[in-house]
Structure formats: C-alpha cells, structure tokens
Amino acid sequence: MLGGMPDGAADIVVMKFGGTSVAGAEQIKRAAGRIVAARERGKRVVAVLSARGKTTDELVAAAHEISERPVAREMDMLLSTGERISCALCAMAIHDMGHEAISLTGSQAGIVTDSSHTKARIIDVRADRIRQALEQDRIVLVAGFQGVSTDSRDVTTLGRGGSDTTAVALAAALDAEVCEIYTDVRGVYSADPRIVPDARMLDQISFEEMLEMAASGAGVLQLRSVEYARNHGVRIHCRSSFEDGPGTLVVSEEEAMENPFITGVTHSDAEARVTLTGLRDEPGVAGRIFGALADANVNVDVIIQNEPVGDDQLADLSFTVDRGELTLAREVIDGLGDVAVQVKAEEQIGKVSVVGAGMRSHPGVAAKVFETLGSEGINIEMISTSPIKISCVIGADRVKDAVLALHAAFELGDDAIRPEDGTGNTTSTVAG
After folding, report:
1. pLDDT value, residue 425
2. Which residues of the chain have pLDDT under 50?
C-alpha cells in the first residue's frame, strides 16, 4: 500500500466535494486524486461527498411522477441514495490508486439528527467508526446530506446543501485542522461572478459576514454549515475542484484581517411574499402565525407589520419565504382560520443585500444603498437590517440591475484593489 501513515497523531483533514465535483467518472477520479494527495502528505482524510450532478433533482422528479405529495419519510429514503452512490464509486477509484478506503452512510458514520424529515438538524456526531477506520490507515468516505433520527431510527436528510453541514459537523467532532469545501467556483466572491464580471475573490471572510451572505443568497456555503462552524470553531477553506488556487478562508472575526467596510453584494431571485391584510392588532396573533409556520419548518426571512391607523384596529403583515415553500406557507395560514381578512401571495419577489463587518463603524451605508437603487429606478418594497447587513426586497426582474449598481457604487471590483506596501497585501480604495 502507498503512503503509510507516519504516526497515529497526524492531522485530520475533512474534504467535501459538491455535486459538480463528482458529476462524472473523470470528476470522481479527480476528487479521488485530491483525496489521495492529501493522504500522501501525511494527513488522515475524511471526505464527504454530495450526489452526482443533477441526481438529487432527478430523484425528486421521479418521486413526483409517482405522487403529487410524496411522504417525507420515503423521500428521505430515496434522496439519501445519491450520496451513497458517489461514495462507493470514489472508494473504488481510491482503491485503484493503491490506498485503502471505506464508504459509510450518514448513519454508519454516526450522524444523529432530529426527526424533521427532509430538513433534519444534526444533534450529535458519534464518530467512533470513523476514528477506528482512520486508525486502520483507511481513507473514510461519508455520504453527505443525511443521518439517522435519534427517535425513530429512520433515515433523514438535512435539506439542500446539507453535505456542507455534514462536513463541518465531522470536522468539529474529529477536531480536524480544517474543513475544505470543494466546489465549481474558486472561492467566495464580492458578488456572483455570473452577474458581475469584475467580482473579486476574497482571500478570507469572517464567520459573521459569511453567515449574512449565506442567509441573503450566496450559494457557496449552506447557512447552517457556517453557523455550525462558527459555534464549534471550525476553519472552512472554500476551494475549486478543478484548479489549484488559494481559495477563501472562513475564520473567526479575531483571525480576519481588516477588510473593506463592504465585503460583498448578495442576491436571491427565488423569494416569495405573503401579505395578510385586516390582521387584528392584539397580543398573540403574530406568535400564533409564526409559531405555526415554524412547526411546519417554513423558514421566514423579512417581516414587516404596519400598525393600524384607523379605528377598526386592523393591521397588515408581510413576510418573505423561499419560493419553494410558498404553497406550504399558504396552507399553514389558511389552516389558522379567520386570522386575517385577506391573504395575498406574490411569487416574483427578489432580494439584494450588502454585507460587511466594517459597516458598524461607517455611517451612511444605508443612505448610499437607497440612493443607488433609487437612481436606477428600482423600487424598494421591504427593508431588513442587521449590524453588518442591509437587505432590500425588490421585484425579481430588477435583481441583476441592483447587484451591478451596488457592486459598482461601493467599488468592490478587482480594479478597486491595489497593492499596499510591496508586501503582497492588498487593500480597498473604497473610502468611508
């Protein structure tokens, strides 16, 4: 066997490969080569793999060919097969390269979740079998996106992008030195490079900024994976599967170098809005509505309630959800009875956000956002803020225009970056 382990205390590296990174035979072999290369550098390697290419979409489509509303438990049984295929095939490739590898399902790897089918949350990682395999000088391949319920012992899945969370959770449980996330992009950018040609790749970003970017539309990392990494101190390294490059490090705010006050512009054109008019303005109504949505696992984003101005004491309430959850959200609201006079749903809703930790100490960011969108004739329908983010809900057809305008207004492109003192460090020319 090639590349024996120098000692039992070698550092553990967790490597995660997304769907495009294992889409075909050549991609799987390339991923196997990266895994073996890390192993031959003396690392103990645990790799988490997603389903191949469009496999998950194809499985979802197959389910809907059979049933208009597939049972959630059986959907998890079905969807969990894609990642298992990827792991078994990659293990075969690694064996052909002269190394021992073992593929494990999420449950075999000790990923324990709650019982929320199709959107389960990891509650424990019992990684004894992984540690045993590493001690036996094996490379361990774990099927991402899945686990086993602690209550029912059923197979569960973690929702879209759940393989990222699997990888981070394993890195935390194994005290890995880093969790490397391999995708079809080079790293985290100041905006989606498919929309903004001069978008800049970030050398590093803080957990807090990455959380806000993931929550507001950046698709490089799943939101829960970043949250898990922050809570457990796991360093994430976003890298390309198809080329060697520095990628982007996601680290604690204490580790992060001082960044430009705006780090990036993110967007989503897959939002929907629900508006309840004639809502009785009394204690407990909002709690009843959002409690029911939470029980149904509907994730609510922006919320606005207008205080009543007339004598009838009726208010209006609007909130946004992922467009794929609109039907369920409507059903939940309808199930509450006469909670409102009218319920209106709008599908063509988008969102654009500016994110940056330096925003805390730079006044005038909100004004610049609103002025920029106004100058482009883009109507702002809802606004949501945090100390390091400003989000605007707009028409879905204006999202691209908004991203381009804001990226230019805050000078986030490559041409706004210059060498600072001959040391190779860079700084933004953006002024507060």
Report:
1. 36
2. 1-9, 417-432
Task: Give the CATH number, domain containing residue 309.
Answer: 3.30.2130.10
pTM passes above 0.70: yes
Q: Alpha helix locations (H) across 360-428?
A: 365-375, 399-409
The Cα 317–Cα 341 span in angstroms is: 11
Domain boundary among 149, 184, 219: 184
pLDDT at position 418, please? 40
User: Are residues 273 and 349 in contact, defined by beta-carbon separation less than 8 angstroms?
Assistant: yes
Asked if the structure places residue 405 within a domain, the reply is yes
Task: Quote the pLDDT of residue 61.
Answer: 95
pLDDT at position 410, please? 93
| Closest to 164 measured CA to CA, from 19, 23, 30, 48 | 48
Q: Which domain holds residue 69?
A: 12-184
Closest CA to 288 of 272, 276, 306, 273: 276
Write the single-letter amino acid at 282: E
Burial class for 280, CB neighbours closer than 10 Å (0-12, 13-18, 19+): middle
Q: How many domains does the chain have?
A: 2
| Helix axes 55-66 and 81-96, enclosed angle (nearest 10) | 150
